[in-house]
Amino acid sequence: MTKNDGERDKTASMETILTHGGRASDDHLGFVNMPVFRGSTILFKTLDELEDYKAPYRYGRNDNPTTRALCDLVSELEGAAGTVVAPSGLSAVSTALLAAVSAGDELLMTDSAYEPTRTFASEGLARFGVTTRYYDPRIGAGIAALFTERTKAVFVETPGSLTFEMQDLPAIAGAAEARGITVIVDNSWATPLYHRPLQLGADMVMHAATKMFVGHSDAMVGTVSANEKLWGRLKRTHRILGVAISPDDSYLTLRGLRTLAVRMKHHSGQSAAFAAWLQGQPEVEEVYHPALPDHPDHAIFKRDFTGAGSLFTFRLKQRSRDALAAMVNGFQLFGMGYSWGGYESLCIPFNPTNIRTAVPWTAPGQLFRVHVGLESLDDLKADMSAALQRYRAIA
Ligand SMILES: *Cc1c(COP(=O)(O)O)cnc(C)c1O
Question: Which pLDDT score, from 0 to 100, does residue 381 have?
Fold first, then answer.
């Protein structure tokens, strides 16, 4: 029988936590899944109850059993003191950053960060007197040389979700800790199954849960988890901002997480195999996938990660827009769209040259970001082969 949270063996493996965490079946008539508690108002029976703050739930915006189950599960996965949820991954980014910095502070952000994360910092935080400087994702312990009296937070995204540089998180976190600087990590790519930033010295870890956690391209959700040191600050910031999500979306995220281990195992194997196959295609100039032995940061991947995500990038020789259109318009299986993490494969062309500021992107050619879904690998190879032929056929 499934035990309620807190009664389970704390040494359980990630697969077991994903299956049994955040269920509390004893509390809802034995049903396996946490029900969706839709509600704003929670009634108090007496004045004593209203005033003593002992009721487990007081108001729907701040707390909800379905959402709490999700937070408990993510905390267990990340080894966190606590977790809050937000209505998108970007909202998780902004909540984490607002918990970490105040007017007059400086934020250091990796040059490889997800573009809307950058925009929140350089456009949003700037309005409140927080300045952002971008650093080389491969800086490692060298980040210490960038610290000033005003530096209060470092934002890490490893690997960068377009260009796939891996960051030396233990080195960055070590340097930051010596100065009392908060380290926030975007862990959307690897998920806590394959990478656990809080165990490597980070203070907060966030997820675009929209991607692998939800896993079916049908909900927008974000999570932020914190260690003991930052948890009070994160919880309070989340509360005063009024960030809340629908319990239906919490339910969908819990439902997605139940199969995260099997999905990730499949995505991980398929993405590495597909990347290796692409490396052998004559028109492919470069493949950016940290699990490939010749990726420049493969040693960091081997040291700090136990598996790879679904997502990687490859580069072709530059050809005309007509060639590009012929290639992507003719895909049978690969879809062209933003986001990733669902069961379906995606391939989208992009150009990072206007995004970067610290380390200019100079490699010539056309980049594509691929999310390898759950289709058969042979079918995906056939679809991509035909696409590469279409690209080659037009100058
Ligand atoms: C998509 C994404 C986000 C933002 O998540 P949304 O749910 O789309 O707001 C943040 N970080 C990374 C790495 C992402 O891929």
Answer: 98
Q: Which fold has domain 5-257?
A: Aspartate Aminotransferase; domain 2 (3.40.640)
Reported as a single tens digit per residue, the pLDDT across 110-165 is 999 999 999 999 999 999 999 999 999 999 999 999 999 999 999 999 999 999 99
Q: Give the other-Cβ count within 10 Å of 54's Cβ.
A: 7
Active site members? 61, 114, 186, 211
The class that CATH gives domain 261-393 is: alpha beta
Please indicate whether residue 164, judged by its CB atom, sits closer than 6 Å to ligand 1. Answer: no
The pLDDT score that the predictor gives to residue 25 is: 85
Taking the C-alpha atoms of residue 334 and residue 34, their distance in angstroms, rounded to an integer, is: 34
Question: Which residues are CB-neighbours of 121 under 8 A, at least 6 positions away?
Answer: 97, 107, 109, 130, 132, 155
Asked whether residue 9 carries a pLDDT value surpassing 80, the answer given is no
Sorted by sequence, the CB contacts under 8 Å of residue 237 that are 6+ apart come out as 95, 98, 99
Length of the chain: 395
User: 2: CA distance to ligand 1 center in Å?
Assistant: 33
Give me the residue spans of the domains in the chain. Answer: 5-257, 261-393
Query: SS3 helix, strand, coil % of the chain, rounded to 5?
Result: 40, 15, 45
Determine whether the shortest distance from the Cβ of 222 to ligand 1 is under 6 A: yes
186 CB near ligand 1 (under 6 Å): yes
- Assign residue 24 a region (left: φ > 0; alpha: ψ between -120 and 50; beta: otherwise): left
**Could you report the per-residue pLDDT of 269-328, keeping only the tens digit for each?**
999 999 999 999 999 999 999 999 999 999 999 999 999 999 999 999 999 999 999 999
- Asked, colleague to colleague, whether 5-257 and 261-393 share their fold, the answer is no
User: Do β-strands 106-110 and 131-135 pair in parallel, antiparallel, or remain unpaired?
Assistant: parallel
Give the pLDDT mean for 72-87: 98
CA–CA dist 67, 72 (Å, integer): 9
Averaged pLDDT for residues 244-268: 98
